[in-house]
């Protein structure tokens, strides 16, 4: 077992006054909607992915974790003065997506320390805590004991050093009483049906858990206790289309037919609120420290529960407004300032502000139309410029280098889910590199593929979201990020129109800031750079190793039943570039920046 400690030199660096570059008080003209406080109130975060420094190039999300700490303290003071409860909830995915989390070994060493400064009432795990053994170990040995009985996981387990699967948390549930109103709360926590975890974790699907005797006994036991509210903190989308949530809800309602149930979700990176029935509510609070979700409930013991929800923009203007503070001096707390100082010191240690160039314009993933060749499309920019920076190279001694014939054409394929965030005009720093694409993948190559076969692969992979054929289970949605999947789904079902801001089951007044509407466009599953020589020459098809299973499936389709051709091509599958530290997508973007944006 490893326990991670931060050295004194790390923690006690020289004192600095924290001041983010440029303005940290946005001074927007937009009208702010008010929070409607209730008998019991919640602040919810999810899918922060290490963004605790705030968004340097986006003023509307420019608050840092220290500001958030001050905000929760000030709002808690307001609630207590009015004899109201305030609970804080986090539903996971705290790793992968920011230099603060991704540049340490293990991933999350510094960012977890920052996260733990917040005094949450319920914390649970996300899938990004489960991919890499070292990250799971850090989370289990550091974050779980820090939060004690507040860290719960109902369906996620961890393989400890004794070779025994134990709960990934301090319990499968929490039963507690609120400080002010003395409400009795029965809290559970669920991960969606995640199959990509490392060898030290195990996720039992919800549809299995709800049939197991121990779980049914747990519910039965709590029907004999005073329960005023059932709370479910899940790393699972709350959208009506996500059936796992409804399976769970159906079982909970059998045991608690009249008790209000409050769900908190995550994973798909959107702002959302759904009504599961007239006494069951579900809130999801965005991603990347762009949103603090707010939920209030009143009259939970009565016949008619009064509810409200807001999506609070992660900036100081919103934080000051909702805590009734006129100046930053009135707003700041000593604890919050210390966290902001800690962030500055960590940023300096990791050289996150080191600049690799100046981005001349903003590029967008879903905010620009890829299919119309919009010049502001980040995906098109990657196709035409960034992927061309890739070179064949072998770093590991046990692998043989390859020398592709110069006469061959080359296709470079990546899944769009590997590009996680927009690229904004302004400084392109070490942190920006991880923000756009944090993943460290190797590159594989199918050599000498006939051009007529190679040029079909992208269209096959972009054909649809899910294919089950010849007992091969291929879910092409996995090539997208969770956010892109949700946006594509809503566009295809006409739920999301051009210019629309957040619309949920309570209407369109959920955003605390009345935003200028932004467009959202569908994105493909994969994009490709095609460096063409001659249609008579074969093509080397290069791709991220993460999508190998999908590319080989598409290759088989493109071969139109010619198994001899298919297997002859697969036989030549090898590494094109195994230097994941030097040639991942984020590094390719850095190489381009150093050449063209200095």
UniProtKB/TrEMBL annotation:
Keyword set includes Signal: yes
Q: Which InterPro entries does the entry mention? A: 5'-Nucleotdase_C_sf (IPR036907), 5_nucleotidase/apyrase (IPR006179), Calcineurin-like_PHP (IPR004843), Metallo-depent_PP-like (IPR029052), Nucleosidase_C (IPR053828), Pesterase_C1039 (IPR014485), YHR202W_N (IPR041823)
Q: Could you give a GO molecular-function term held by this entry?
A: hydrolase activity
UniProt domain Putative 5'-nucleotidase C-terminal: residue ranges: 362-552
**Protein name, entry field:** Uncharacterized protein
Q: Name one Pfam family in it.
A: NadN_nucleosid_C
Query: In its UniProt record, which GO terms are filed under biological process?
Result: NAD+ catabolic process
Task: Please tell me the species this chain comes from.
Answer: Ogataea parapolymorpha (strain ATCC 26012 / BCRC 20466 / JCM 22074 / NRRL Y-7560 / DL-1) (Yeast)
Q: Which residues form the signal peptide?
A: 1-19
Q: SUPFAM superfamilies attached here? A: 5'-nucleotidase (syn. UDP-sugar hydrolase), C-terminal domain, Metallo-dependent phosphatases
Instruction: Look up the domain of life of the source.
Output: Eukaryota
**Cellular compartments per GO CC:** cytosol; extracellular region
Sequence ranges assigned to domain Calcineurin-like phosphoesterase in this UniProt record: 41-270
Q: In its keyword annotation, does this UniProt entry include Cell membrane? A: no
Which key words are in the record? Signal
């Amino acid at each position: 077992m490893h326990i991670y400690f931060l050295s004194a030199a790390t923690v006690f660096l020289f004192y600095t006054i924290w001041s983010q570059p440029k303005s940290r008080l946005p001074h927007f003209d937009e009208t702010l909607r008010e929070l409607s406080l209730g008998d019991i109130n919640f602040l919810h975060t999810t899918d922060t992915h290490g963004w605790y420094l705030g968004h340097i190039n986006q003023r509307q999300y420019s608050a840092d974790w220290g500001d958030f700490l001050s905000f929760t303290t000030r709002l808690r003071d307001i609630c207590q003065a009015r004899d109201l409860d305030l609970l804080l909830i986090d539903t996971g995915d705290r790793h992968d997506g920011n230099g603060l989390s991704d540049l340490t070994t293990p991933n999350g060493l510094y960012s977890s320390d920052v996260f733990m400064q917040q005094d949450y009432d319920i914390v649970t795990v996300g899938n990004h805590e489960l991919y890499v053994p070292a990250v799971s170990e850090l989370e289990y040995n550091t974050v779980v004991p820090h939060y004690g009985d507040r860290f719960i996981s109902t369906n996620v387990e961890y393989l400890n050093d004794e070779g025994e699967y134990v709960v990934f948390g301090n319990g499968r549930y929490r039963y507690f009483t609120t400080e002010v109103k003395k409400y009795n709360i029965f809290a559970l926590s669920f991960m969606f049906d995640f199959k990509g975890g490392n060898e030290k974790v195990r996720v039992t699907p919800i549809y299995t858990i709800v049939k197991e005797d121990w779980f049914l006994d747990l519910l039965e036991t709590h029907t004999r206790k005073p329960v005023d509210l059932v709370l479910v903190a899940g790393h699972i989308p709350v959208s009506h289309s996500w059936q796992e949530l409804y399976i769970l809800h159906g079982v909970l309602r059998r045991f608690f037919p009249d008790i209000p149930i409050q769900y908190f979700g995550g994973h798909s990176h959107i702002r959302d609120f759904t009504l599961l029935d007239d006494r069951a509510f579900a809130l999801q609070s965005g991603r990347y420290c762009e949103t603090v979700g707010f939920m209030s409930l009143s009259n939970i013991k009565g016949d008619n529960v009064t509810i409200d929800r807001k999506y609070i923009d992660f900036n100081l203007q919103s934080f000051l407004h909702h805590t009734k503070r006129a100046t930053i001096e009135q707003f700041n707390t000593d604890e919050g300032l210390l966290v902001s100082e800690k962030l500055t010191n960590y940023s300096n240690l990791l050289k996150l502000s080191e600049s690799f160039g100046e981005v001349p314009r903003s590029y967008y993933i879903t905010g620009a139309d890829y299919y119309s060749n919009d010049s502001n499309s980040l995906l098109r920019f990657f196709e035409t410029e960034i992927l061309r920076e890739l070179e064949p190279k072998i770093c590991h001694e046990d692998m043989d280098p390859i020398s592709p014939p110069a006469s061959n054409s080359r296709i470079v394929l990546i899944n769009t889910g590997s590009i996680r965030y927009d690229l904004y005009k302004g400084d392109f720093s070490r942190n920006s590199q991880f923000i756009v694409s944090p993943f460290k993948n190797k590159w594989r190559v199918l050599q000498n593929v006939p051009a007529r076969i190679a040029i079909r692969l992208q269209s096959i992979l972009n054909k649809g979201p899910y294919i089950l054929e010849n007992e091969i289970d291929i879910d092409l949605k996995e090539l997208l990020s969770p956010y892109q999947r949700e946006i594509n789904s809503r566009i295809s079902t006409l739920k999301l129109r051009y210019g629309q801001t957040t619309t949920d089951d309570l209407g369109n007044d959920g955003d605390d800031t009345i935003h200028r509407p932004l467009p959202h466009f569908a994105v493909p599953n994969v994009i490709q750079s095609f460096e063409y020589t001659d249609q008579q020459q074969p093509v080397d098809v290069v791709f991220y190793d993460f999508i190998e299973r999908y590319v080989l499936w598409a290759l088989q389709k493109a071969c139109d039943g010619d198994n001899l051709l298919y297997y002859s091509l697969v036989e030549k599958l090898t590494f094109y570039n195994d230097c994941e530290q030097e040639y991942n997508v984020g590094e390719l973007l850095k190489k381009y920046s150093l050449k063209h944006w200095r």
